[in-house]
Amino acid sequence: NAGVTQTPKFQVLKTGQSMTLQCAQDMNHNSMYWYRQDPGMGLRLIYYSASEGTTDKGEVPNGYNVSRLNKREFSLRLESAAPSQTSVYFCASSEPGQPYGYTFGSGTRLTVV
Amino acid sequence: SQQGEEDPQALSIQEGENATMNCSYKTSINNLQWYRQNSGRGLVHLILIRSNEREKHSGRLRVTLDTSKKSSSLLITASRAADTASYFCATKSAGGTSYGKLTFGQGTILTVHP
After folding, report:
1. What are the pLDDT digits (tens) for A24-43?
2. Do the strands B10-14 and B108-113 form a parallel or antiparallel pair, or are they unpaired?
């Protein structure tokens, strides 16, 4: 099925560990995004990539890095995980200028202990 | 900072009733979108309304936009238990370097009782 695929679905990290969240889309979208969702906070943008080869900071980029590996893939890396990064992470993609919204992945639930 | 503020935070109704959720925002927008999120799942796009539109329909959904008041409402008619979910508004800012980016509200939790 066409869409956005995120891996892993669940992860538990110890403080200070690193990990990479993977995201891939097969809709040939140019733009991709990483959001985090915390209770009562809605979704907050971490990083985005308007097109292949470009990345920009969003609202809450501290503690994260991203890589737009190619048009399909956009990964999010936590270099040294902290308990404050416990959250649900969503990847999304879109085609700017088209009259439809984002397509979201199913999320990664990350717990940092 | 959150662009959208949603009201109410939670809404509980009976099947067959209508549900209305409101969203207010702060800055000029290019478009406003509504999304649904079922528990433990990703967000699903419902409807998009552009800044030059005032009303839009999609099935049982009706969205209105009042740019003078910087507000929007989502009406779900004849609600069903399957409509139970969280609903988010999201805005795309007009112009500038906000190309493609959406800013989400905190959401309204809708519970529809059978």
Report:
1. 999 999 999 999 999 877 89
2. parallel
Dihedrals phi, psi of B108, to nearest 5 degrees: -120, 130
pLDDT digits (tens, 9 = 90+) for B4-22: 688 899 999 999 999 999 9
3-state secondary structure of B60: coil
- Neighbour tally for A76: CB within 10 Å: 22
Instruction: Name the residue facing B45 among A33, A40, A100 (closest C-beta).
Output: A100
Q: Do B45 and A103 touch (CB under 8 A)?
A: yes
d(C-alpha A47, C-alpha A57), whole Å:
5
CB B89 within 8 A of CB B32: yes
- Partners of B101 on chain A (C-beta within 8 Å) are 33, 45, 48, 58
